[in-house]
Amino acid sequence: MNSPRAVVRNWRDSESYLGHDNAVVWPILQQKKADDPSLFSCLTHASGFAGHSLQGGKSTNLHAHEQAEQYYYILSGVAEVLIEGERHPVREGSVAYFPPGVSHQLIGENNPDWMQYLIITCPVSDGNERGNERGNERRSQPRVLNWRDATPEMGRHGKAVTWQLLERLAKEEPETDQPCLLAFWYLARQAVGKGHASDYHQHDDKEQVYYILEGEGTVVAGFDAHHVQEGDTVYLPMGVPHVILNDGHAGWLSYLVVS
Q: What is the pTM of this model?
């Protein structure tokens, strides 16, 4: 049996299509299926990791996902996200989270330029929802925040600076003021300066995805070394040790960590 290995794909290399009325969709990673031999059909927990482009002045359709949670991460542009009838401004660096069954829509009527954003989705079972109810009947709620509102930390993963953004609702001692996730584990933004790296580690209980926001560097996963740059998505299977290094870029190597 072959050992699991990391997968790297830039969103620009995927074949796009039109979805949600006006968005150009760039499918990056999909859920693994027995009848799909594609290298990029590799997700075992999440169900989708895609890039979207929305033309200035356009909006997507209003919709909800009854059995999945989802969040948008805004890469560029400005817009509003409509959540259950209430508008929230979003811009580069914003995260908008939607629990199952919550209607949402991206409204770009006042944005003159193209907007780029990620959509990341994970199935939520009845067990997930029941398991995340607390004694006070608290349930997951929509969230809109920007990574700049989070407090940076160091020491969590080597020399990487970490901004914790979203975390599981069921966590006994939340580390942020954004506990909401039902099936996902967490979302964080990290950055490493020139000549620095994260720690070399592995996760035996979860898959992980890095999305490179800016800069370039190297991801070592198992026995493989991958050059990465802005727009690359790195899939890290469970049990594969990995480290990310800024081994020459003069500025920050910044990336999202999706678990």
A: 0.94
Residue 135 lies in a domain: yes
Which residues, including other chains, have CB under 8 Å from residue 244's CB and lie 6 or more apart? Answer: 160, 190, 192, 197, 198, 210, 217, 218, 219, 220, 228, 253, 255
**Beta partners for residue 52, in sequence order:** 25, 117
SS3 state at 128: helix
CATH of residue 178:
2.60.120.10
Model pLDDT for residues 109-157, shown as the tens digit of each residue: 888 899 999 999 999 987 555 444 443 345 899 999 999 999 999 998 9
Residue 38 in domain: yes
Q: For the CA atoms of the chain, what is the radius of gyration?
A: 18
Number of domains in the chain: 1
* Dihedral sign of CA atoms 57, 61, 65, 68 in order: negative
Question: How far does Cα 124 stand from its chain's mean position?
Answer: 16
Q: What is the pLDDT of residues 9-42, one digit of tens each?
A: 999 999 999 999 999 999 999 999 988 889 999 9
Angle at 140 between CA 19 and CA 116, to 5 degrees: 30
